[in-house]
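Changelog excerpt

This revision adds worked examples to the README so contributors can see how folded entries look when concatenated. The first example is reproduced verbatim below.
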Amino acid sequence: MKRLTIALTAALLAAPLSAPPALAGLPTSPMIDGSLAGDESFYGAALSVQNTRTQFGDGAGNPDPVITGNNLADAGGSEIDQVFATVYEDRLYVLVAGNLEGNFNKLQLFIDSGPGGVNTIDGAALPGGLDGFCCGGLEPPKGGNTNNDGALQRLDGLTFDSGFNADHALVFTHGGESVRNAPEDPDNNQFWALSSHYANLQNGVSGDVASLGYQLAPRGEPRVMRSPAVTAVVGDYNDDGSVNAADFTVWRDNLDTSFELPNRDPENSGDVSQADYDTWVANFAQATGPAGGLGDFSFKPFGNPGNSDELISDFTLAGLGQGELIDRNYALSVDGGCTDDTGAGCVARDLEFALDVDPAETGMADPAMNNQKNHRNFNNIIDLHMAIDNSNTEGVFGAGSQPFTLVNGEDNPEEVLTGIEFSVPLSELGTLGSSIKLMAFVNSNGHDFMSNQFAGVGVLDANLGQLLINAGGPPAGTFADVPGDQFITIPLSTSNAHAAPEPGALGLMLLVALGLFSTRRANV
């Protein structure tokens, strides 16, 4: 037996410390990219599937990862189709599958993570300024939001389901943003961004509140949107890279012939004709050129189908990883290049958005004149990671009136696997109980008109609007009046089962087990 123990020990020490086959297939942490693809075994089954048709618009069949309608904030829609969530290696992971319209509709989340928390939102007793640009911007002297109103003040009076006591609030929103907005400023820059915002509800008005950060490209990619490379221009009939007078000569010399014009509009066919002349006129002065660089002006996506993928840069932002956020710390880093809050030195114009207010633009006699550069002072105080993939064209239909129930063969929320995904450390959620409860719903851009899209059982009704909040009168009811729980529960015991022992620890456990077996045999 002694020889066998020595032989087995030697074999274990010589073998590579990799996970045994039985553990090799365990889930690993996902790429935060806004999609379930490749992460099915990690998340498991959906914890919520929608049962209510949306009244917050409906996507116009646009497969773009940013735009849900015919343009960024035109004819789109918002919906929650499925929710996936789990805990792995001390982080909470959530994917809210669906769509969020790019008109600054909000994906609003409340997290009940442990003891304490609030069952009713009392705006006067909770932090102000959550997603403050929904409601007046920054408070003086940096802005004109004299009451420091934010999402929690707009939701004043909202009472959750019995047993749900919110400890934390999160907001996700996206749309067209800009910096240096003064009309005479030649550096005015407009761009698309997804941003996130946070408040701790456990410490009253003293609770932490922050605009966490933003991303400039979909799917959590650390990239920017710039003008795409132009390799050919319709109407460039002599193929010299630009549409000019020489192309008119080519058209004239070949009119009414079967000559194959280079760079011809694919809509035109047959012999060279008047239509080809019209194309030349419409595209005159267009030229080929390289893609925009980091220091160039930004481009916002547009159209149906949208052009986001064409605008996403080939290069990445140095020092920024997949799913990570741009905040003031990044902007002021060596990689971001900004030297201070004036915006000087930033390697990209859109990084200025992350900075605190330029000291020269505070305390103006007219508070509306504060912060003309539109800085937002982003600070990712909870190490949030996030991503959006807005490409869903399936899910629930829109409905203008009753019934809001789903129709077999038409609605298919269970097929939707893309949306907003995020991850946050458990350490930021405080003392944990046996589970984490999560409430998610779509709200208006002012946080004061609630949709009918909720995670949980589903409301099977029209938009809740202002029925449950103080808005010109007391709330007409609470979530206790809505059948079923409008939240999901993530059992920590089940979620933590994802964690696997490190390979080195496995080897040590086997060695100890063999030692115990040898000792026992020797004592028999």
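The second example, added in the same revision:
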Amino acid sequence: MAFKQIVVAYDGTDEGKRAIEYGIYFKERIPESNLTIVHVYNERVEQRAVGNPGSAGLANDGYYIDPTQMHPVLPVENNFNRDANTHLVVSNSVAAAESHCLSILSENGVDGNFEILEGNPAESISSYAERIGADVIIVGNSGKSGIQKLFTGSTGSSIIKDASCPVLIAK
């Protein structure tokens, strides 16, 4: 069985990078295959304070205290200074994932594509793989402990259930 369509799921983790390494391994041995790295859009933006932290009170920070509350409100030390600058911090950026994946491929002299998917990671990856007729999906091992997997599951396990082709867990 030759892998003509190889799909690698990348999530920005070390395990995801390991999955790319497996994809590169197969691509180098089967040069006529198509290697596609997919990343599911899951960008988070947070606003974080930077600068010199101060200790302003609740009223100075714009908090509203409802006088009808049954429990007394205790002042909490707030380390946010109104004069401090804030910056948006982007986690799991699509641009960063694409740049990272393409640089790994370039460093290894391997051609490949990068696709951005949206939605539930397992469903999106499985349906994309089926749509392009993938011969294999390569995913990283989540690194979750047994009890974590029991309660939250893992994307890899869900892909195994949903996929219409073999799934390789890169460990």
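Reviewer comment on example two: Residues 44-89 form one domain. The chain has a mean pLDDT of 79.
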